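Dear Dr. H.,

I hope your travels went smoothly. While you were away I took the liberty of generating a structure for the chain from your last submission, since the lab meeting agenda had it listed for discussion. I wanted you to have the full record in hand beforehand rather than looking at slides cold. The sequence, exactly as received, is reproduced here:
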Amino acid sequence: MVKAMKWVDENLEKYLMFILLAVMVVVVFLQVFMRYIMDNSLSWSEELARYCFIWVIYVGISYGVKKRRHISVDAMMLLFKDKAKIYFSILANVLFLVFCGFVVFYGSGIVSQLLAFGQTTPALQIPTAIVYAAPPVGMGLAGIRLIQNIIVDINRIRHFKSNSKSSIHTVA
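The corresponding predicted structure, in token form, is as follows:
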């Protein structure tokens, strides 16, 4: 069970994005083939590709947080040393976590309303709640990754403190 959880922790976003992008590419290729070679168009392909793209965006946010690859303004970070940079990283992650909480909270409300209405998409006839679930799910995953990053940063601060104490003892 622990091994499976570790695999999910390391690979969830990567494989979700791979599957969604693969579906998107295949569907768009199929639509181009049908339209220009077979002279017939699929009614559902553009809708499916669009929904896959929406999900890729929100899962990608979580993946970017996990890899710490999001664009950030680091002008303030250039002014500070290592420990202060970590504190600012924690602050930025906490603020982003609050934003993720808002998106999850309000997005979940919208999804539950759409489920109650029973609205479906025009071509695929799937519940629109599936499409609207992308922001709360993606930001929920990002929130989990932010918490992981905050824990890593706190451990880095503890590491700085323990190294500074050991260097004081060795000098004295």
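Two observations you may find useful: The chain is about 80% helix and 0% strand. Residues 134-171 form the longest helix (38 residues).

With kind regards,
E. W.
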